[in-house]
Design brief:
By secondary structure, the protein is mainly α. Helix content is 73%, strand content 0%. Helix 2 packs antiparallel against helix 3 and helix 3 (60-82) crosses helix 4 (84-101). The protein is flat, with a radius of gyration of 23 Å. The model has no long low-confidence stretch (mean pLDDT 75).
Amino acid sequence: MESLSDHGSRRSTGGRGPDRGSGGATAALNRVLLLTGALLFINGISVTLIAALIPFAISSAIVITSVTVLTIVAAVAYAAKRNPARTRALVETARPLVESVTDRDRPRRQGGL
């Protein structure tokens, strides 16, 4: 078993051992999973508190939807502020897919009787 001082000195040197080759993908996946879990936790607490405080004023479906949307918007805004270059790259990657789904040149069918 290694001591804590060995772990700290090895970590401060910045070298990666042979068993830590694909740490980037695993670290990114861990961050995504942790962020998703944190968002679900915050969302659950918020919905529970709002539903407990004002159960007669607003329908629970409206509360759940609004809190979920606000939580997602806050998370996206935080991520966009923290990593603007990554956000731009993600937008540029998704743009062709969004444009293919919302193609404006396709013929529209007229419905009627």
